[in-house]
């Protein structure tokens, strides 16, 4: 997860940890740190890339739009699944996220129950329904 809001990280991590499947959950607080982390994983023979990146758009140092553009420039990460979680309902921001390379854009909600439903739906789809694809 790439998110600078510690409260959002704690809420989503708590929800993911209750998922019916075991998920390794790692966080970075901005796009720059996330790219560094992914590059380290990619260069390690023993670590695999994440099955999914949950991405916030509004972050310091490197925002989500810039992160997506940089991620998609790298052949190793071109097909890396990214789900944007955003508080914005602005159609232009959503369209830009897709243009930047997001696989999905989902609106965050204020309630714990609502976020639980959203995260459980994402987990169910990405880890139980969708087929994974990895570049060699």
List how many beta strands DSSP finds: 3
Shape: globular
- Helix and strand succession? HHEHEHEH
Query: Over all CA atoms, what is the radius of gyration?
Result: 14 Å
Largest sheet: 3 strands, parallel
Kindly report the spatial arrangement of strands forming the biggest sheet.
1-2-3
pLDDT < 50 stretches: none
What is the number of helices? 5
Distance between the termini: 23 Å
> Which range does the strand content fall in?
5-15%
> What structural class is derived from the secondary structure elements?
mainly alpha
Average pLDDT, rounded to a whole number, is 86
Architecture overview:
The protein is mainly alpha-helical and 136 residues long. It contains five helices and three strands, in the order ααβαβαβα. It has helices at residues 6-17, 31-43, 64-73, 91-100, 112-129; strands at residues 53-55, 82-86, 104-107. A three-stranded parallel sheet has the order 1-2-3, covered by helices on one side. The longest helix has 18 residues, at 112-129. It is globular and about 40 Å long. The mean pLDDT is 86.
Task: Reconstruct the topology from this structure.
Layout: H1 6-17, H2 31-43, E1 53-55, H3 64-73, E2 82-86, H4 91-100, E3 104-107, H5 112-129
Parallel strand pairs: 1-2, 2-3
Helix pairs in contact: 1-5, 2-3
Q: What's the short story on this structure?
A:
By secondary structure, the protein is mainly alpha-helical. The protein has helices spanning 6-17, 31-43, 64-73, 91-100, 112-129; strands spanning 53-55, 82-86, 104-107.
